Amino acid sequence: MMDLRSIANTVSDTVNPNIAVTVQASTGYNIGAGLKQVPSYATPVNGFAQVQALTAADLRHLDGLNIQGATQSIILRGALDAIVRVNSKGGDLVTINGQTWLTVAVLEQWPLWTRAAILLQDVN
């Protein structure tokens, strides 16, 4: 199988360099104090990703999902998931330069890579 993402990345990386990211896959939730659901995540995995602005079509898609806030597009090798209700999982977390982002929509998912919309989280 030809890895077109790697070929395209060699070009895009010269204009918009890949950056170090940490991904934590959602594993569902635990029950905390007061019987509240507390999200749980797998062990963090480090890697590199391409972070870009969302396209107009992506913004329309997120608008239709009523997602508001600071959003970006991320392209990385591997898989990211947004909410998967049948598995009781929330979105995966991505840490970029100390900021936490939540995966809110998977825009493209291929065997070797994923492009997703991420939303900046208020971690205060």
Short descriptors:
6-stranded antiparallel β-barrel, two-stranded antiparallel sheet, 44% strand, alpha+beta, 124 residues, Thrombin, subunit H, globular
Kindly summarize this structure in a few lines.
17% of the residues lie in helices and 44% in strands.
Characterise this structure.
With 124 residues, the chain is α+β, with helices and mostly antiparallel strands. Helix content is 17%, strand content 44%. A hairpin with a 3-residue loop joins strand 7 and strand 8 (113-120). The longest helix is centred in the first third of the chain and has 12 residues, at 4-15. It is globular and about 50 Å long. The chain starts with a helix and ends with a strand. The mean pLDDT is 88.
The number of E-state strands comes to: 8
What is the CATH-assigned architecture?
Beta Barrel
Calculate Rg over CA atoms: 15 Å
Question: Averaging pLDDT over every residue, what do you get?
Answer: 88
Helix vs. strand class = alpha+beta
| Strand proportion | 35-45%
Total tally of structural domains: 1
**SS element count, helices:** 2
* Order of SSEs: HEEEEHEEEE
Unreliable stretches, pLDDT < 50, 5 or more residues? none
The CATH topology label is Thrombin, subunit H
CATH class: Mainly Beta
Biggest sheet architecture: 6 strands, antiparallel, barrel
Biggest sheet strand order reads 1-4-5-8-7-6
